Amino acid sequence: MKKPVFKRIVLKISGEALQGRLGYGIDYDVTNSIARQIKEIRALGVQVSIVIGGGNIFRGATGSAKGIDRVSADYMGMLATVINGLALQDALEKNGVFTRVQTAIQMQQLAEPFIKRRATRHLEKGRVVIFVGGTGNPYFTTDTTAALRAIEIGADVILKATKVDGVYSSDPVTHKNAKRFETLRYIDVLKKGLKVMDATATSLCMDNRLPIIVFDLFRQGNIKRVIMGEKIGTIVKG
Q: Would 220 be classed as within a structural domain?
């Protein structure tokens, strides 16, 4: 039987992914679909951690652009990730997947504080760990959180789950001739300003030789396909 090519992963999910067709908030059909896919790869023995955004509820950069103090806006965005993390935890546990939520902003009644050793121990015991609260600092995105946590816990790869099937030379929705890349180098992502992850996150991955795979979350079974080594989406490495 073919074995997974990755043992420990960080799955990066945007807040917008959770809103589904609602346009705002949380679509529970989406969280349930994600939970079922994660259960499928957990059954293969893969250690799964998740970093989740908050853009479906509040985005710090948008709030700042509308006049809210940037630091306050970023903290508001971090709190939005906690709401999303708890929603995903609920969906996972209703599908029989044991989880822990760890937050960079302490809130004892809701989640554990992020402690690297505790996180890796949970993973070793087969629990899914959901990282929320960003890095705990303003001016950093959840992309950077994903890169930082992946390096800290010794993940093999970051799987960036999106609405499109990879990285394109331009927006494929508005540009019909946009080219999809199968592979990219970190430096090319930075030079071309491609929308993979932000520059800080990409640089962290480059410095630590941590590959990033960008793929379509909404095609059922895609997470397993990536885990099993199928060539879907775009891989950033080298």
A: yes
The beta-carbon contacts of 182-190 under 8 Å, at least 24 apart in sequence, are: 182/231, 182/234, 182/235, 183/234, 183/235, 183/236, 183/237, 183/238, 184/234, 184/235, 184/236, 185/236, 185/237, 185/238, 186/236, 186/237, 186/238, 189/236
In-domain check, residue 1: no
Instruction: Assess if residue 52 is contained within a domain.
Output: yes
CA atoms within 13 A on the CB side of 32: 4
Q: Using CA atoms, how far apart are residues 162 and 223, in angstroms rounded to an integer?
A: 11
In a domain, 2, yes or no: no
Q: Which domain holds residue 111?
A: 8-236
Return the residue matching tokens 């950077």. 144
- Which has the closest alpha carbon to 78: 116, 135, 31? 135
pTM above 0.85, yes or no: yes
Each residue's pLDDT, cut to its tens digit, for the chain (238 residues) gives 689 999 999 999 999 999 988 888 999 999 999 999 999 999 999 999 999 999 999 987 787 888 899 999 999 999 999 999 999 999 999 999 999 999 999 999 999 999 999 999 999 999 999 999 999 999 999 999 999 999 999 999 999 998 888 998 887 778 888 888 999 999 999 998 888 899 999 999 999 999 999 999 989 899 999 999 999 999 999 8
For residues 9 and 101, what is the distance between their CA atoms, to the nearest angstrom? 16
Number of domains in the chain: 1
CATH of residue 54: 3.40.1160.10
